[in-house]
Amino acid sequence: MNIKLVGGAALGLATVLVLSSCGSGGSGGSGGDDQASGGGQVTLKMVAADYGSGPGKPDSGENFWKGVVDEFQAANPNIKVDVQVINWNDIDKQVATMIQNGQVPDILQTGGYSGFVNDGLLYKVDEVLSPEVSGDMLQKFSDFGKVDGTAYGIPFVSSARALFYNKDLFEKAGIAEPPKTWDELKADAEKLKKAGVTQPFGLPLGQEEAQAESFLWMLGNGGGYQDASGKWAINSPQNVETFTYMKGLVEAGLTTPNPGTKDRKTVWEDFGAGKVGMVNGGPMSIPIFDAAGLKNYGVAPIPGKAGPLDTTLGVMDWIMAFNKNGHAAEIKKFFDFFYTGSAAQKISDTYKLLPVTNGGIKKLEGDEKLKPFLDALPNASFYPFTDPKWEAVSAQVKQTIGGAVSDDPAKVLGDLQKTAEAAG
Asked: I need a surface site. Which of 34, 277, 315, 344 has the fewest CB within 10 A?
């Protein structure tokens, strides 16, 4: 999940957020709505991230959205929804290019929204979502869709994180229970290595989602991307200590080899194949483990330096509506249909991601596999989504933070701190 940028996307997005407001304004809403009221057909252009295994696979984003759109269009024959599904690694870069070229979508579903707010590109949530649907949103999550008190981003799906551990490998290594502290994690990793486990701890710090894995480790030492006052603190003493510890694990051969080049899906597949003893993951990991045939695994709180985390990473992806082309009324119909119909349930069934509405959560209360993550949602910690610099910072984190476990942690984190302070 979440914002995925690669290559030169950080520069492209930062540039487009400056340029893209030209001609967009905030008043483009009337033309499309007038057309709808006259009875003509409206086409909504939507861009969405792919939560599945890629094009042509049964769980592909194309298949998922086709089902949603077919059902919606049957009920709303005057509204066509044209969905373009893009891989997580490419979506933000491609969207930045689209907007720079004036090809602004009506709807975007991805990992972040705040940069678009600054340029006046988005509808307010109350312009494109009914009050009944807004009122059913998880409050803590929907509050993060606000900038200066006004909501622009709508939570799309949510997730939480926990530690998965392979019970068979733990038994083989003589480990009775999952680790609660970093010292215990290292000791267990050493036992797993002696027992022949090639990756005692799975550590994905590649570009797909390095910002998430890093944040989980930061939380374990009282750190984070920002301090309590909202100032950037990427190179805080706590974070430097955290990555120094992680570097020690890597150098001792207790983790995924070359973590900075490994994406989470690869590491989760290795866990499913029985090659990894422990790994941080979420409910979206479960289908990967199930597909690999792994049954005997446990779920526990993520270990911290002094004890298990009393929080976890709460992840939200977002859906938003751009105002350039108008069509607010049609977008509202689509959003209301999505959240009140079967689509949100299908996301949980297909991808094991969690709903963002109270009604959706209630429907899943009986799912034992999801229960640890549903229970963790109220205590979740979040990325600094509402800081407009986050997109640029996140992009740079993904590209470089893996170097903190192979090079000098203080230097790598210091360079990221400079990026954060200069961004925007």
From this structure: 34
- Residue 26, judged by CB atoms within 10 A of its CB (0-12, 13-18, 19+), counts as middle
**Burial call 369-390: b when 16+ CB within 10 Å, e when fewer:** ebebbbebbeebebbbbbbbbb
**What are the pLDDT digits (tens) for 74-100?**
999 999 999 999 998 889 889 999 999
Q: Which amino acid, one-letter code, is at 212?
A: A
Could you tell me the pTM of the whole model? 0.73
Please give the single-letter amino acid code of residue 399: Q
Measuring CA to CA, how many Å separate 252 from each of 241, 268, 279, 308? 17, 21, 17, 23
Could you tell me what percentage of the chain is helix, strand and coil, using 3-state DSSP and rounding each to the nearest 5?
45, 15, 35
Q: Could you identify the residue written with the tokens 């509050």?
A: 143
Question: Do the Cβ atoms of 33 and 332 come closer than 8 Å?
Answer: no
SS3 319: strand
CA distance 390 to 165: 32
Give the Cα separation of 306 and 308 in Å (integer).
7
Beta strand extents in 14-151 (DSSP E only): 42-49, 79-86, 107-110, 146-147, 150-151
Amino acid at 97: T
108 touches 325 (CB < 8 A): no
Other residues' Cβ atoms within 10 Å of the Cβ of residue 148: 7
Question: How far is residue 381's CA from residue 61's CA, in Å, rounded to a whole number?
Answer: 28
List the structure tokens of 298: 């446990």
- Could you tell me if 267 and 261 are in contact, meaning their C-beta atoms sit under 8 angstroms apart? no
The mean per-residue pLDDT over the stretch 56-72 comes to: 91
**Length of the chain as a residue count:** 424
C-alpha dist (Å) from residue 405 to 98, 174, 260: 35, 28, 8
